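thread: overnight batch results

M.L. [08:02]
morning all. the overnight job finished for the chain we discussed friday. pasting input first so we're all looking at the same thing
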Amino acid sequence: MPTLIDKEVQLLSRIRNGDERAIDEIYIASKGRFLAFARKLLNDENSLEDVYQDTVIAFYENVRTGKITSLNSSITTYIIGIGKYMLYHHLKKTKAMSNLDDVDELDLGIATNTYIEQIENKETAIILQQAIEKLGEPCTSLLRLFYYEEKENTEIATLLGYANADVIKSQKYRCMQVLKVIMKKTYKNGK
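M.L. [08:03]
and the structure it wrote out:
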């Protein structure tokens, strides 16, 4: 059975080959998480739809032009990353928020740590994967299920035998704190 990563590699290949259905699949699959994130910054549904469409179009063009050849995160996470900046520009343009000098200071609620979204090269991706493996269980499984397989907290709780989604949120926070420490040590020691 193909993994999520295999499916996403196939989707990228299909887009590069002009398969319009691939972008439709991505559009539908990513929309819920994108809108959940975007509603924290903007509550105008029409504008949200416009920003989402522009975001997916930008993603599509990046794949078609070869700007994106592979991803070190899920397609949805990448789309949210593009959308974050499109939302920022939309809000600044419409003056819906008065002080948006530094988008990184906004609490975007994507994750407690943005290492996963900001991976820019394969070396960093390898270091991150090694750091996640150093975490051990249950952190390795929990983070894999949440960030790579995009499972909901309730589903992760069921899969890992936890009482409920709140326990998963707490455990995920603890795992991310340990991951931050491991990543900082790794970079401090010169990778």
